[in-house]
Amino acid sequence: MLKLKHILQEVGQAQAALAASLSLSGATVAQLVNHGLWPRSLDGDELRGRIRSFLTESGANDADVANAFDDVDPPCANTAGPALKKEPSGEDEPMLLPKQALQITTRKAFGLFRDPFDELSSSQDMWVSPDIRYVRELMYQTARNGGFLAVEGESGAGKSTLRRDLVNRIADSNEPVIFMEPYVLASEDNDLRGKSLKSTHIAEAMMAAVAPLTKPKNSPEARFAQLHKALKESHAAGYRHCLVIEEAHCLPVATLKHLKRIQELEVGFTKLVSIIMIGQPELGVKLSERNGDVREVVQRCERVTLSPVEDSRLMEFLKFRFDRVGKALDEVIDEGGIQAIATRLSQAQQRGGREVRISQLYPLAIGNLVVAAMNLATELGVPVVTADVVKGV
Prior knowledge:
By secondary structure, the protein is an alpha/beta fold. The protein has helices at about 5-10, 15-20, 25-35, 45-55, 60-65, 105-110, 130-145, 160-170, 200-210, 220-235, 255-265, 280-285, 295-300, 315-325, 335-345, 365-380, 385-390, and strands at about 150, 175-180, 240-245, 265, 270, 275-280, 300-305, 345-350, 355-360. The protein is built from 17 helices and nine strands. The longest helix has 18 residues, at about 365-380. It has three domains: about 5-65, 434 Repressor (Amino-terminal Domain) (Orthogonal Bundle), CATH 1.10.260; about 105-120 and about 310-390, Helicase, Ruva Protein, domain 3, CATH 1.10.8; about 130-305, P-loop containing nucleotide triphosphate hydrolases (Rossmann fold, 3-Layer(aba) Sandwich).
């Protein structure tokens, strides 16, 4: 049985409603939900995208949408509670760890005065792969020259780091770009689960950045006209404007549609606002070309995804991080340990009735695993992290 069945119950949607939205028979959806049997006549990826869109619009949270097609054990027939869980196996163990702290004893044992995976203090602390370099430059050119960009990536992939780097890079080069960043604390994509970020809130943030001393008009129409005028005056003074929205996967569909209208504010042939949205993969679900509600946004918005660190570059990444704190990598972890980290964070899993390779080799996940392995090596009295130490975490 797929987790999808539990999610439908949690959001109060019947299987019949899902079937109607997919234009499928109830029997076909029942086979899919209860037994993981996918209709052979349809494209699996397209069908999964449509189901995720349905769940998102029904109010399912991001984690449930991402894991909707995982297999779960059905309840036992003669008990009211769930079935007993299977004994864990190596394949079923979770890949990710919570935040790990480098213990004082570990620092002393390895001769470290700084945690190599602490928050970055400058752009020089950034490890830049070809993929990251491309996304970094694309964000920079969008801020300077205009555009509509969506940056997607898993938690810990480095999205916020790239946003901070962009702001610092523009400031260091004295580029005349004004950043407008609405607050997204407690932001959700509907008002039932939290406070949704609406176009009026975005307009207020933009007005505060462009003309902070101007008192906003009362009516929404007058406020938007006031914003357009302020942007024109700022442009005439030689400034460009970049709207940056983090946690963009929490934006309601209505706000996504309104962003297209903000991006169309212009003077002559010149767009007055460039937009950069930064969010988790659920943003890609909302911006799917199969989602007719946002087709105007999809046609204008360039999308780019931050990929995990490639296995072949894992040693390069680790060497860079330890070099920044003055420590040789081979004095901390051997090649077998590095390979074990790659294996631990990259596993085959069952998704939608088929086996796929899931990589979680993102900077945050790598850092947590390496720190945990270093702490364990210190407890065991092992001089360097080995494959056995990594497997023991």
